[in-house]
Amino acid sequence: MSLDKIRNFSIIAHIDHGKSTLADRLLEKTATLTAKQMQEQVLDSMDLERERGITIKAHAVRMNYRAADGEIYQFNLIDTPGHVDFTYEVSRSLAACEGAVLVVDATQGVEAQTVSNLLLAMNNDLDIIPVLNKIDMPAAQPAHVRQQVLDLLGGTADDIIEISAKEGIGVEDVMEAVVASVPAPAGEQQGPLRALIFDSLYDQYRGVICFIRVVDGTIHKGQQIRFHSTGRLYEVEEVGNLVLNRMPTPELKTGEVGYLIAGIKVLAEANVGDTVVEAKEEDVAPLPGYQPLKPMVFSGIYPINPEDYEVLRDALERLKLNDAAFSYEPETSPALGFGFRCGFLGLLHMEIIQERLDREHQVEIITTLPNVLYEIQTKDGEILEVENPAALPPAGEIQEVREPILAVQILVPSEYIGAIMKICTERRGIYLNTEYLDGSRAILSFEMPLAEVVIDFYDRLKSVSRGYASFDYDHKEMRAGPLSKLDIMINGDPLDALSVIIHRDKAYVWGRQLCGKLKELIPRQMFEVIIQGAVGSKIISREVVKPFRKNVTAKCYGGDVTRKRKLLERQKEGKKRMKQFGKVEIPQEAFLAALKMED
Questions:
Q1: Are 312 and 363 a contacting pair, CB within 8 Å?
Q2: Which of 234, 328, 538, 594 has a CA 20 to 30 Å removed from the CA of 300?
């Protein structure tokens, strides 16, 4: 198909604003799927995606649409993940497009992620088609929300298309707007090959399948190619189109979207955002924007039953095959035994991995307190990256500790601004500014440490705003601060699974509260259990779980008092030996307690 008849576009929206439903209607209207093949949320193939109403794994699909002018156009819809954790994948999907359909829910209005995704699209110079969805709902406020969109984008009210994706109202207008407003792809058809990898997945029979957008040149079967970031060479085994299923074709030309199979065995060799070039072309410039995916949140995952260690390792290995952003490595804990230290893009990513371990692999796990990646500058001038508090060097060797700082935007109704600001300042947030979208809604901008966001911040935000607040964030920088390692010790032995790197001003309160919760949760033993919180060599909190006590003097009826003393001393010696050799079982609730410290 000629370049001027191709339209590459994406649908961007906040979670649950109707992105996947609109994609379903487009597939129906273009007859890409038969009525028998059709189901709700076709592009969301995981059960988790359907239940949560979010897109976790991006998809792409090709459609042919006969426009009002009688011409047939090739639509390449490149779906995007719908959560802040996957911002980089969203940016690479948008880089493969020329236009974006911005969907805004007429009942909820503009949300924080609407603004964030819109800015990503604008940074990629995409033409924006604003769409107001769910206009048929009783709670819809089309006039009010239309004004919010105009305040964001400018333009006139006539530019905004009103639809109901569920009922199919106005979908034809969206498709005509795509034809009229989204420019045809630009590229050098006779130039050297440059193709953008915007997604990839692992197939157990074919290896890694790369989803690509051909920017310049042509790619065909048998061609020798090179991945720019890794320098690895491959021979193309198959290329083709994506119409939900893979359809092989002899070649993919400039402007087209499709897939590439080249016998790649490891997902990490086909990085999202990388550029595919011809092997013989040495001086081809890569496409801009590529960056390696880097986990930001880390947590230990341990099997509840130690015999399930091998099962857990196999499950993590299979998850890693289809998720290049997920990382894991073995670790051991005196309290929890053998397990794995896992890296995630964010909290939602962590939840998804945990849920998939339970559903797809039936492994019961304990997860430790989430940590973030810290940079440690030693007194020798060396820079270390520490993802586990247990790996922190001794305090005497540390020059400074740097933590990741986020630029946070919170979109909130005006009446909740005070409560939201209080939460943010409690979490060491630095207020930047307030921007009012209209009389009733505002965007608050803060700088906040990631460590303060990963533990129940989102839940607190939703609870104080009655579910109306939404937030979005970007990583800004690594910043030095007065941070210390807080150790929790049980009978003098550090419980590394509950160790945290924390701001010194919060260490005392956190240590006291956590020791208090552990006292409630650790069952009584036959010997005394001492729970201590320590910063370095200084004990800052202490709790004691009293032992069970047998009345050994019950059988003494009279006689000298020394008989009773002898029995009590013998009991004391026995408990001392128990304490020396006894092992305290830490229940899973103790680790969950650390996640709910603010309750």
A1: yes
A2: 538
Residue type, 472: D
Q: Where are the beta strands (DSSP E) in 19-141?
A: 60-66, 72-78, 99-105, 127-133
Structure tokens at 550: 């047998």
Which CATH number does 3-181 carry? Answer: 3.40.50.300
Residue 77 has pLDDT above 70, yes or no: yes
What burial letters (b/e) apply to 229-238, b meaning 16+ CB within 10 Å?
beeeebebee
Instruction: Classify domain 375-481 at the CATH class level.
Output: alpha beta
Q: What is the pLDDT of residue 464?
A: 83
Distance CA(249)–CA(113), nearest Å, equals 37
Question: Looking at 55-59, 280-284, 366-370, which range is the least confident one?
Answer: 55-59
- Residue pair 487/499 in contact by the 8 Å Cβ criterion: yes
Q: What is the pTM of this model?
A: 0.70
Element housing 437 (H / E): none
The arithmetic mean of pLDDT across residues 397-418, rounded, is 86
Identify the CATH class of 194-278.
Answer: mainly beta
Of the candidates 100, 55, 59, 99, the residue with the CA atom closest to the CA atom of residue 78 = 59
For residues 95 and 159, give the distance between their C-alpha atoms in angstroms, rounded to a whole number: 24
Superfamily assignment of 297-368 in CATH?
Elongation Factor G (Translational Gtpase), domain 3 (3.30.70.870)
Helix axes 171-181, 19-29, angle to 10 degrees: 90
Domain ranges of the chain: 3-181, 194-278, 297-368, 375-481, 486-493+507-595
